Every structure is written in structure tokens, then in C-alpha cells.
Known about the structure:
The protein is of the alpha/beta class and 340 residues long. The protein has helices at residues 13-23, 38-48, 56-62, 77-86, 101-114, 128-138, 158-162, 177-181, 183-193, 292-307, 315-334; strands at residues 4-9, 28-34, 51-53, 67-70, 90-94, 118-121, 145-153, 196-204, 215-222, 227-233, 243-248, 251-256, 259-265. Strands 8-9-10-7-11-12-13 form a 7-stranded mixed sheet. A 6-stranded parallel sheet has the order 3-2-1-4-5-6, with helices on both faces.
Amino acid sequence: MRALRVGFTGGGGITETHARAARECADLEIAAFCGANGEKTAALAEQYGGRPFTRLEDMLETVPLDLMVIGSPSGLHAEQGREAIARGLHVLVEKPIEVTTERADALIHAAEDADLRLGVLFQDRLEPAFVRLKSAVDEGALGKPLLASARVKWLRPPEYYSGSRWRGTLALDGGAALIHQGLHTVDLLLWLLGPVTSVRALTTTAVHAIEGEDVALALLEFESGAVATLEATTCAWPGYPRRVEISGTEGTVSVEGGAVVAADLRTPRPDLIATPEEPASGASSPTLATATPHRRVLEDFARAIRDHRPPACDGREGRRSLALVEAVYRAARAGGQDLT
């Protein structure tokens, strides 16, 4: 079988990571890049192969493709994804799937109606350490989940936002710290602990000159009865790896960055701890040192196309984290009780 021909949208750092990952996939052939910045797009094409374009319509009309990987600003995902689907292409989109569930639903329905694969890049779901953790939680190794805490305390300098036309805007980013930096952690909580039924929240824009929030705090109640705190910020000096702890009646597990760093269980599970030969992903830097986690997602997506099955995180699964973030934002706008 010939390699699947892939086109990319977006010219930023995440598209470069997607291209590095695709280059490592034997089942993919890099065919084209499309981005508004012609200089960046041309540089990507020169480094990784394929043809550069500044208009999506030109790329879709000119280059034969099998799938498109979308790394454009979040608020363009549904529009570009539906254009690709209309041309018969499978679509893999960077998180979040979109900035509103209404737009996400339009993209999901378009893919389902066309019987094409739609995936979302939540690479934690294929991280070996987290796959083992998911199995352990499902098997009852933690007992009944009781309490979780998730903290994404990162630092982004002012120029991270001021140097971008879309970061921190409501139209193209959908918010800021939670929907952008915190979303992988939101997805991880939902994947491990299941649906959330109740949300209380506070958000604020404390430091950065942006439309979205740079500090978010939420209290979550899960369908299982477990509760969790969720924190996300881009103001925490000097910046720390994300941290997730889950406690149940049979013990506690701790995640730092992209690794399970502790598993204190009544019945020990040493297999949950990452080995030195298994480096963890999950850096808090906007530049990712390794493309391996994204390569896993691309390889899975290629197999999903070949096998005519859902990818590791399809559109409906990818929608769950966006829906929860929307609920957090609504709860924050509703406010609490003023004690002054």
C-alpha cells in the first residue's frame, strides 16, 4: 500500500512538531503545507518536503491528499476541517477541536455524514505511562476514586501573547490559560475519571493584556461521586510541570509532566512508574523537545484510516474537554456569593 499523503495547515511551532512527527511515520508522505505566513510555510516545505501554499483552497485543489492535519488557530479548526472533508479528506486537528461546542458539532457531523475519520491530538491518551494508568484505574487499583487535584502552573511572558494575532483572543483562542495550556490536563481527568456533572469556577485576567483568562480555578464533581480541583495559569513564576494527583480508597497516584511519578497503593503496581528507558513527554515549554507523542497519534490515525475504525481520540471524545471548559467559563461568569 502506498503511503497516505498528508497536508498541513498552520505555520507555527505546533505545525513544525506535526511535520517532525509525520516524517518519522513510514505510512505518511508529507505533500503540502498551507499557512497565512508565506515565509514560514515555505521554510517548512523546504525542510520537510511538500509544496507550500498560502491559501487553503489552492492546496486542496492542487495537491492530491488523503488527510489533513490542522495546526491553525483554534477558531479556524471547524472551517478548515469542513473544507477538507468536503474534498473527501480525513482530518486530524490539534487540540482544542474548536473554540465552541457548536462549531465542534458542525465539524463532527460533517465527518460522520461523509464517513471520514476525524481525530483530535490529545497525545496523553497514547502515552505508555498513561495507558497503564488508565488500565489500572479501570481495573480498580485505586479503589473508588475520591479526590483529585490538577495543576497547570505555567509561565508565558507578555510577548507570547503580544507577538501573536490570535493567542488569548476569544475569537481564535476561545479564552487562554484553561482552553489552551490546561486542556490536555482537562482531557486527562475526563479520560481517567469519567464525566463531570457539576462545576463551580472563578477566572480572572490578572497579568496579561489579553481577552481571555490567565488564571482559572474550578471545582468539579464527577458522575462517580469523586471531586476535583482544577487550576490553570500562565502567570506562575518560574513555571512548573503540570501536576495531577488522584486519591481513591485504595491509594494515590501522582502525575508530573508526562510521567506517573508515584503510585502509593495498598496493592503495589510498580509497572505504573516510568522507567529511565521510557522518557516522558509533557514539557511546559511551547517548543516541544520530542515529536514522539505526536508521532504515536499520527501512526494511530493512519491505522484508523486503513482499518476504518475510530482513532484513539475521535471528534466526540475530543469535544468532551471543550464542553467542560465551556461549563467552567459559564460558571465563572455566573459568579459566586460576595461576602464584602
